[in-house]
């Protein structure tokens, strides 16, 4: 064979997900890759010749191989923790009570502002690494704990440095409109002026891939959110939204109106919101970690998403307040347990639909020409990925054909 492949892994079953109907299973499968892309996806039977004559690296495997997991919603860059707030909530305080009394997001803002870039990086790297070791091959990271120009910039720079240090692709999201910083108390509109002014400066430094906001009673109203989205649109940046998490402010419909990537949380999204999402191809990002930690009871409109063909993604929402969750497998487990997703829906939500929520169409499925991002798991069936609580099942995490975990 004249053109050698860089690598080949063979013997495991493949869950290609290259079909809407099932896992797209190939028993005794083979993946081959070259220059970071898959160049062969098939069964061992059909492999043309001795693998050692085809590829430089030959890996014998058993168990299962899935596409690499895509965590499309995290706030994993921050300093400090909120364990004390967790205790207060267990004693009866609500998330909103704590936010209104100066805790919550604003307390992480204080800690993140006080730490320099290196310290924020050192505190955040282990979180990204934990996700990677449990199968994540692309992660989205939001700003939103800086809430001034320098500190939002610091967070986004840390996100880019995580990509460089771990070889883990990072998609950055500017979430300046996450909460009102204390210096703007009572002046939401003035703060939005500032958020809108910082955006092109951060974008000019190559720090922004998408723009998000927290549209909620304790966040920003739809008119303020719209101003942030207008600023994103002026720069050609895609939008997404913390939408309808604690109440229905029509956030999902607003994302749809702007042709955005995703509406996230969506517990309170109305039927009209779901229809608007379907009409504009907006992905519903389900965040069962926050639902679980806040002990929410209102389920997202899952049947309406299915009925209208809205793609559902699953993400960790890794953050110090509502979802200190460091594993996509656990997010998938919670999505099945709380939201009754099937394990196949959860896996699609953690791969192909997560990629879609980031506007990435080169990953999330095992298909020739896609990125060689895949995970070799020690499981007997892919449903096991949603079944265990805890444990360690990833035997190899490959990103662009390189073993990273
Ligand atoms: O996705 N809802 C707003 N943002 C985060 C929580 C952030 C925090 O509490 O620090 C969320 O749940
Ligand atoms: Fe979030």
How would you summarize the topology of this molecule?
Elements: E1 5-10, E2 13-15, E3 25-26, E4 29-34, E5 37-43, H1 51-54, E6 55-60, E7 64-67, E8 69-71, H2 83-90, H3 95-100, H4 105-114, H5 117-133, E9 136-142, H6 149-166, E10 170-177, H7 188-204, E11 210-215, H8 222-234, E12 240-243, H9 251-257, E13 262-265, H10 271-280, E14 283-286, H11 288-293, H12 302-308, E15 312-314, H13 328-339, H14 343-349, H15 352-357, E16 374-377, E17 394-399, E18 402-403
Helix pairs in contact: 5-6, 7-8, 9-10, 13-14
Question: Based on CA inertia axes, which overall geometry fits?
Answer: globular
CATH class of the largest domain: Alpha Beta
In this entry the ligands are: N-(iminomethyl)-L-glutamic acid, fe (iii) ion
Number of domains: 2
**Major sheet details:** 8 strands, parallel
Distance between the termini: 30 Å
* CATH topology title of the largest domain: TIM Barrel
Structural class: alpha/beta
Beta strand count: 18
Give an overview in words.
The protein is α/β, with parallel strands linked by helices and 405 residues long. It has two domains: 5-67 and 365-403, Urease, subunit C, domain 1 (Roll), CATH 2.30.40; 69-357, Metal-dependent hydrolases (TIM Barrel), CATH 3.20.20.140. The chain is 37% helix and 21% strand. The chain is built from 15 helices and 18 strands. The protein has helices spanning 51-54, 83-90, 95-100, 105-114, 117-133, 149-166, 188-204, 222-234, 251-257, 271-280, 288-293, 302-308, 328-339, 343-349, 352-357, and strands at residues 5-10, 13-15, 25-26, 29-34, 37-43, 55-60, 64-67, 69-71, 136-142, 170-177, 210-215, 240-243, 262-265, 283-286, 312-314, 374-377, 394-399, 402-403. The strands form three sheets. It has an eight-stranded parallel β-sheet. Strands 3-2-7-16-17-18 form a six-stranded mixed β-sheet, with no helix packed on it. A hairpin with a 2-residue loop joins strand 4 (29-34) and strand 5. Helix 9 (251-257) packs parallel to helix 10 and helix 13 (328-339) packs across helix 14 (343-349). The longest helix has 18 residues, at 149-166. The protein is globular and about 70 Å long. The two termini are 30 Å apart. The model has no long low-confidence stretch (mean pLDDT 96). N-(iminomethyl)-L-glutamic acid binds next to helix 4.
